[in-house]
């Protein structure tokens, strides 16, 4: 390991519960880095995710697909930190908690000692299972990472009672001081075709896509304003994303 | 070696070590061989030797010397006088110190946050599970 590994940041999704919006969040975060002209390396560690829902579906050739269910676990972090950009964005799949926990138990001390820092991104929805999933990961990772919690509104009137008021979630916030940001509800007319065709918000906002239903003025404007507000949330948490 | 060159060598004074870790080189090497992490070594140096040092400093020190050792090993045969130095009493003493200082078992760090996965979430406002 050489000094190139110093001052690096790995941002990874806590991949416990499927379908909460982890990949959508990572796609948007990658766009935020692009908008700020900061280079990053994208790792798709979600071996279970179908092609259409995966990070690779949105970024194709610029994403490295990694199978973490091997004895080496998350060693891809180390290799890419050594030779890649200063920032790694890694999308973990559902059910990757044990692999991540084992890897942190055996590798964290030495990786952290050479200057790599970790941000664990947890996406919570009104579904209590999403909150339980984040808390279970935090129970394993403890203070070895910084925590960013994204409240993903899956409906116009999303109720985050379990995240806001569950005793266990309160204790998590008190003990590990996560930064909390919001991802607002997206209209199905924008979200569904974008996911179906692997089109990013920025490509809708700038009409850089070939999908007619995503070129409607109202959809373009929605994409622009949604993107602006989400980027504003990312700006608020920027310390969690930078080396 | 030629007598003139030996006399030249003698005339050049020994430079002092550039790193404050130099005097603890053998201890650090033995600790690494026993599986201690850089963080463990920092703690041992602090607690047993009273030396404050950053983890990154230990890392650089170890890496630089490892590289140097490799060069010496491949480019030059060990000098006779150097090979005799390997088992000096000071060296053994530092090995004994390293062995004594080696942590036998790392006690589990106290958790700052505990979550019982088998228990349902309890809403504070309702005072019970839901």
Outline the fold blueprint.
The complex is a heterodimer of chains A (243) and B (130).
Chain A: E1 8-13, H1 22-35, E2 41-45, H2 55-59, E3 63-65, H3 75-83, E4 87-92, H4 97-113, E5 116-124, H5 128-141, E6 146-152, H6 161-165, H7 167-176, E7 179-183, H8 188-197, H9 201-205, H10 217-236
Parallel strand pairs in A: 1-4, 1-5, 2-3, 2-4, 5-6, 6-7
Helix pairs in contact in A: 4-5, 5-7
Chain B: H1 3-11, H2 25-33, H3 38-49, H4 55-75, H5 80-85, H6 89-101, E1 122-123, E2 128-129
Antiparallel strand pairs in B: 1-2
Helix pairs in contact in B: 2-6, 3-4
The main pleated sheet of chain B reads as:
2 strands, antiparallel
Distance between the termini of chain B: 86 Å
Tally the beta strands of chain A: 7
Question: Largest inter-chain interface?
Answer: A-B, 30 and 24 residues
Residue fraction in strands of chain B: under 5%
- Averaged pLDDT of chain B, please? 75
Largest sheet report of chain A: 7 strands, parallel
What is the string of helix and strand elements of chain A? EHEHEHEHEHEHHEHHH
Biggest sheet, spatial arrangement of strands of chain B: 1-2
Could you estimate the helical fraction of the residues of chain A in percent? Answer: 40-55%
Percent in strands of chain A: 15-25%
Class by helix and strand content of chain A?
alpha/beta
Shape of chain B: elongated
Reading side by side through the largest sheet of chain A, how are the strands ordered?
3-2-4-1-5-6-7
Please explain how this structure is put together.
The complex is a heterodimer of chains A (243) and B (130). Helix content of chain A is 45%, strand content 17%. With 243 residues, chain A is of the alpha/beta class. Chain A has a seven-stranded parallel beta sheet with strand order 3-2-4-1-5-6-7, with helices on both faces. In chain A, helix 4 packs parallel to helix 5 (128-141) and helix 5 packs parallel to helix 7. The longest helix of chain A is centred in the C-terminal third of the chain and has 20 residues, at 217-236. Chain B is built from six helices and two strands. Chain B has helices at 3-11, 25-33, 38-49, 55-75, 80-85, 89-101; strands at 122-123, 128-129. In chain B, helix 3 (38-49) crosses helix 4. Chain B is elongated. The relative contact order of chain B is 0.11. Classes of the chains: A alpha/beta (243), B mainly alpha (130). At the A-B interface, helix 4, helix 5, helix 6 and helix 7 of A face helix 4 and strand 1 of B.
């Amino acid at each position: 390991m050489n000094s190139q590994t110093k001052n690096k940041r790995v941002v990874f999704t806590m991949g416990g519960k499927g379908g909460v919006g982890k990949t959508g969040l990572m796609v948007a975060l990658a766009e935020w880095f692009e908008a700020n002209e900061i280079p990053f390396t994208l790792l798709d560690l979600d071996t279970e995710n179908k092609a259409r829902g995966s990070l690779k579906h949105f970024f194709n050739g610029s994403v490295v697909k990694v199978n973490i269910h091997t004895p080496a676990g998350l060693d891809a972090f180390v290799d890419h930190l050594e030779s890649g950009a200063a920032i790694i964005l890694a999308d973990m799949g559902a059910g990757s908690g044990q692999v991540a926990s084992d890897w942190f138990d055996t590798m964290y001390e030495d990786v952290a000692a050479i200057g790599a820092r970790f941000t664990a991104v947890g996406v919570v929805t009104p579904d209590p299972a999403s909150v339980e999933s984040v808390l279970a990961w935090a129970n394993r990772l403890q203070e070895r990472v910084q925590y960013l919690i994204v409240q993903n509104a899956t409906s116009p009137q999303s109720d985050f009672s379990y995240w806001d008021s569950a005793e266990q979630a309160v204790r998590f916030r008190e003990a590990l001081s996560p930064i909390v940001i919001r991802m607002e509800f997206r209209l199905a007319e924008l979200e569904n075709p974008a996911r179906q065709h692997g089109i990013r918000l920025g490509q809708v906002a700038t009409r850089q896509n070939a999908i007619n239903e995503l070129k409607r003025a109202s959809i373009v404007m929605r994409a622009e304003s949604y993107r602006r507000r989400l980027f504003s949330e990312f700006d608020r948490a920027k310390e969690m994303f930078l080396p | 070696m030629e007598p003139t060159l030996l006399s030249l060598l003698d005339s050049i004074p020994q430079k002092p070590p550039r790193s404050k870790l130099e005097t603890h080189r053998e201890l650090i090497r033995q600790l690494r061989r026993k599986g201690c992490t850089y963080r463990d070594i920092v703690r041992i140096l602090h607690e047993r030797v009273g030396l404050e040092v950053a983890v990154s400093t230990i890392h650089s020190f170890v890496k630089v010397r490892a590289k140097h050792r490799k060069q010496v090993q491949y480019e030059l045969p060990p000098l006779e006088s150097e090979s005799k130095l390997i088992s000096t009493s000071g060296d053994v003493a530092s090995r004994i110190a390293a062995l004594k200082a080696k942590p036998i078992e790392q006690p589990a760090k106290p958790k700052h946050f505990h979550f019982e996965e088998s228990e349902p979430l309890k809403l504070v406002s309702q005072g019970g599970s839901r």
